[in-house]
Amino acid sequence: MHVPDGFIAPQVFLPAYGLVIGLALYGFKRFKENLNERSIPYLATLSAYAFVLSSLSLPLPGGTSVHGMGFAPLSILFGPWTAYLCMCLVFLLQAVLLGHGGITTYSVNALAIGFVGSFCAYGVYSLLTKRKYATFLSGFISTLASALFMSVVLGIHPYLFTDVDGKALYFPYPLSITIPLLLTSHIPVALVEGLLTQAIVSFVRRRGFEG
């Protein structure tokens, strides 16, 4: 779901950069307040897991891709602000070191996956925390929420940004294509994401760590 350079208009990615930075500064303040030494190894391991999982992608028509996320275990165990910061770092390293996702589109990728995904995962888990499948549904629903957010951001571009002949200047496919394409392609990913989230959170908690 990483969007490469050239598909997002400056009128979108520049304000998104401001929002990403502002959220990151606030998130870092919350992160420092809640950090303890025992959590560092788990945090590093789960951040590495998110990096690897979201680096393994399959291309989709139009230039975007489908891949796992890895934010749900971070969000459930450490909270959504810490998960958001970790995912921002993951996307930055992927864009700079691997060319996975663009520099100009970094802000939109960080918002769609890092912010929307992390807070959706935490919200779903908090609402269903006493239910048997709360952890699975947290990973499943948050993955689809991120895909939906990205599909809307991409799909509005042909309506908003065209040349004098009406040709799309940036991402060319409308909402009628982006929403069904990204949601259906991410359903298998969301199922795997849910299962992995349930397995990882259960494993970490069996070792006595609650975040």
Keywords:
71% helix, 211 residues, globular, two-stranded antiparallel ribbon
Outline the structure in words:
By secondary structure, this protein is mostly helical. Helix content is 71%, strand content 3%. The protein has helices spanning 10-34, 39-55, 71-78, 80-98, 106-127, 134-155, 157-160, 175-206; strands at 57-59, 65-67. The chain has a two-stranded antiparallel ribbon. A hairpin with a 5-residue loop joins strand 1 and strand 2 (65-67). Helix 3 (71-78) packs across helix 5 and helix 3 (71-78) crosses helix 8.
Annotation, overall tally of beta strands: 2
Tell me the distance between the termini.
28 Å
The portion of residues forming beta strands comes to under 5%
Structural class: mainly alpha
* Rg, nearest Å: 17 Å
Count of DSSP-assigned helices? 8
Q: Ranges with pLDDT <50 over ≥5 residues?
A: none
Shape: globular
**Spatial sequence of strands, sheet with the most strands:** 1-2
Helix content: over 70%
Major sheet size, sense and barrel closure? 2 strands, antiparallel
- Element string (H = helix, E = strand): HHEEHHHHHH
Mean pLDDT: 91
